[in-house]
Specification:
three-stranded antiparallel beta sheet, four-stranded antiparallel beta sheet, Immunoglobulin-like, Rubrerythrin, domain 2, 146 residues, binds fe (ii) ion
Protein backbone atom coordinates (compact mmCIF):
# COMPACT_ATOMS: atom_id res chain seq x y z
CA UNK A 1 0.00 0.00 0.00
CA UNK A 2 1.36 3.43 -0.94
CA UNK A 3 1.96 6.01 1.79
CA UNK A 4 1.53 9.76 1.26
CA UNK A 5 2.92 12.09 3.94
CA UNK A 6 1.74 15.61 4.73
CA UNK A 7 4.78 17.91 4.86
CA UNK A 8 2.97 20.24 7.26
CA UNK A 9 1.83 17.91 10.06
CA UNK A 10 3.22 14.44 9.31
CA UNK A 11 -0.18 12.84 8.72
CA UNK A 12 -0.02 9.74 6.51
CA UNK A 13 -2.74 8.91 3.98
CA UNK A 14 -2.94 5.40 2.53
CA UNK A 15 -3.16 4.69 -1.23
CA UNK A 16 -3.44 8.24 -2.59
CA UNK A 17 -2.90 11.85 -1.52
CA UNK A 18 -6.13 13.47 -0.26
CA UNK A 19 -7.45 16.73 -1.70
CA UNK A 20 -6.91 18.28 1.72
CA UNK A 21 -5.09 17.04 4.82
CA UNK A 22 -7.76 15.94 7.33
CA UNK A 23 -5.51 16.98 10.24
CA UNK A 24 -4.09 20.40 9.25
CA UNK A 25 -5.95 21.34 6.07
CA UNK A 26 -2.84 21.45 3.85
CA UNK A 27 -3.54 21.04 0.12
CA UNK A 28 -2.85 17.92 -1.97
CA UNK A 29 0.41 19.51 -3.17
CA UNK A 30 1.78 19.28 0.40
CA UNK A 31 1.76 15.46 0.18
CA UNK A 32 4.65 13.36 -1.09
CA UNK A 33 4.76 9.62 -1.53
CA UNK A 34 7.24 7.99 0.84
CA UNK A 35 7.57 4.21 0.95
CA UNK A 36 9.80 4.60 4.03
CA UNK A 37 7.46 6.85 6.04
CA UNK A 38 6.97 4.13 8.65
CA UNK A 39 9.64 2.42 10.75
CA UNK A 40 9.58 -1.37 10.66
CA UNK A 41 11.12 -4.05 12.85
CA UNK A 42 14.30 -5.50 11.37
CA UNK A 43 12.96 -8.97 12.20
CA UNK A 44 9.16 -9.17 12.74
CA UNK A 45 9.57 -12.60 14.36
CA UNK A 46 12.15 -11.39 16.88
CA UNK A 47 11.26 -7.88 18.04
CA UNK A 48 13.97 -5.71 19.60
CA UNK A 49 13.30 -3.54 22.66
CA UNK A 50 13.16 -0.52 20.31
CA UNK A 51 10.39 -2.25 18.33
CA UNK A 52 8.53 -3.22 21.51
CA UNK A 53 8.63 0.39 22.78
CA UNK A 54 7.16 1.84 19.58
CA UNK A 55 4.69 -0.54 17.93
CA UNK A 56 1.15 0.38 19.11
CA UNK A 57 -0.66 -2.35 21.07
CA UNK A 58 -4.45 -2.85 21.10
CA UNK A 59 -7.09 -3.98 23.54
CA UNK A 60 -10.51 -4.33 21.88
CA UNK A 61 -13.55 -4.50 24.17
CA UNK A 62 -16.92 -5.18 22.60
CA UNK A 63 -18.78 -3.61 25.49
CA UNK A 64 -18.36 0.01 26.50
CA UNK A 65 -18.92 1.21 30.05
CA UNK A 66 -19.72 4.75 28.92
CA UNK A 67 -22.03 4.44 25.90
CA UNK A 68 -24.35 1.43 26.27
CA UNK A 69 -25.75 1.09 22.74
CA UNK A 70 -23.33 -0.88 20.61
CA UNK A 71 -20.22 1.14 21.38
CA UNK A 72 -16.94 -0.70 20.86
CA UNK A 73 -14.03 0.35 23.06
CA UNK A 74 -10.53 0.14 21.67
CA UNK A 75 -7.66 1.01 23.97
CA UNK A 76 -4.29 1.60 22.36
CA UNK A 77 -0.95 2.10 24.01
CA UNK A 78 2.60 2.64 22.79
CA UNK A 79 4.02 -0.07 23.01
CA UNK A 80 4.34 -3.54 24.54
CA UNK A 81 7.10 -1.96 26.70
CA UNK A 82 5.41 1.34 27.55
CA UNK A 83 7.20 4.20 25.78
CA UNK A 84 8.64 6.99 27.96
CA UNK A 85 6.90 10.39 28.08
CA UNK A 86 9.82 12.63 29.04
CA UNK A 87 10.58 16.24 28.08
CA UNK A 88 13.19 15.19 25.51
CA UNK A 89 11.66 11.93 24.31
CA UNK A 90 7.94 11.36 23.96
CA UNK A 91 5.06 10.34 21.72
CA UNK A 92 3.83 13.42 19.87
CA UNK A 93 0.58 11.94 18.58
CA UNK A 94 -1.33 8.86 17.53
CA UNK A 95 -3.32 8.91 14.27
CA UNK A 96 -6.21 6.47 13.99
CA UNK A 97 -7.83 4.82 10.99
CA UNK A 98 -10.75 2.51 10.31
CA UNK A 99 -10.20 0.37 7.22
CA UNK A 100 -7.36 2.75 6.33
CA UNK A 101 -9.62 5.83 6.45
CA UNK A 102 -8.67 8.54 8.97
CA UNK A 103 -10.88 8.80 12.06
CA UNK A 104 -8.86 11.06 14.34
CA UNK A 105 -5.62 12.26 15.91
CA UNK A 106 -4.81 12.23 19.61
CA UNK A 107 -2.00 14.65 20.57
CA UNK A 108 0.13 14.33 23.70
CA UNK A 109 2.31 16.51 25.88
CA UNK A 110 5.25 14.91 27.68
CA UNK A 111 5.45 14.27 31.43
CA UNK A 112 1.74 14.51 32.32
CA UNK A 113 0.11 11.72 30.31
CA UNK A 114 0.83 8.14 29.34
CA UNK A 115 1.18 7.24 25.64
CA UNK A 116 -2.28 5.71 25.37
CA UNK A 117 -5.69 6.53 23.89
CA UNK A 118 -9.21 5.16 24.18
CA UNK A 119 -11.57 5.02 21.20
CA UNK A 120 -15.36 4.68 21.36
CA UNK A 121 -16.39 3.31 17.99
CA UNK A 122 -19.77 3.21 16.29
CA UNK A 123 -18.46 0.51 13.95
CA UNK A 124 -17.96 -3.06 15.17
CA UNK A 125 -16.21 -4.70 12.24
CA UNK A 126 -13.14 -3.91 10.18
CA UNK A 127 -9.55 -2.97 10.87
CA UNK A 128 -8.26 -0.33 13.24
CA UNK A 129 -4.83 1.08 12.45
CA UNK A 130 -2.80 3.34 14.71
CA UNK A 131 0.28 5.29 13.64
CA UNK A 132 2.27 6.77 16.50
CA UNK A 133 4.93 9.44 16.11
CA UNK A 134 7.91 9.39 18.50
CA UNK A 135 9.86 12.67 18.45
CA UNK A 136 13.14 10.74 18.21
CA UNK A 137 12.35 7.37 16.63
CA UNK A 138 9.74 8.27 14.02
CA UNK A 139 6.41 6.77 13.03
CA UNK A 140 5.33 3.19 13.76
CA UNK A 141 2.18 1.33 12.79
CA UNK A 142 0.06 -1.16 14.68
CA UNK A 143 -3.20 -2.82 13.67
CA UNK A 144 -6.07 -4.85 15.12
CA UNK A 145 -9.24 -6.44 13.74
CA UNK A 146 -12.47 -5.51 15.52
FE1 LIG B 1 11.03 6.65 21.10
Amino acid sequence: MKLFVCSMCGYIEFNDAPDKCPVCGAPKTAFTEDANALKKPADPNNLSDLDKKHIPMFLVKKQCGLIPDGCVDVNIKVGEITHVMEAKHWILWIDLYHNYKYIGRHMFVPEKVNPAVGLHLKVNTGKITAIENCNIHGKWLGEAEL
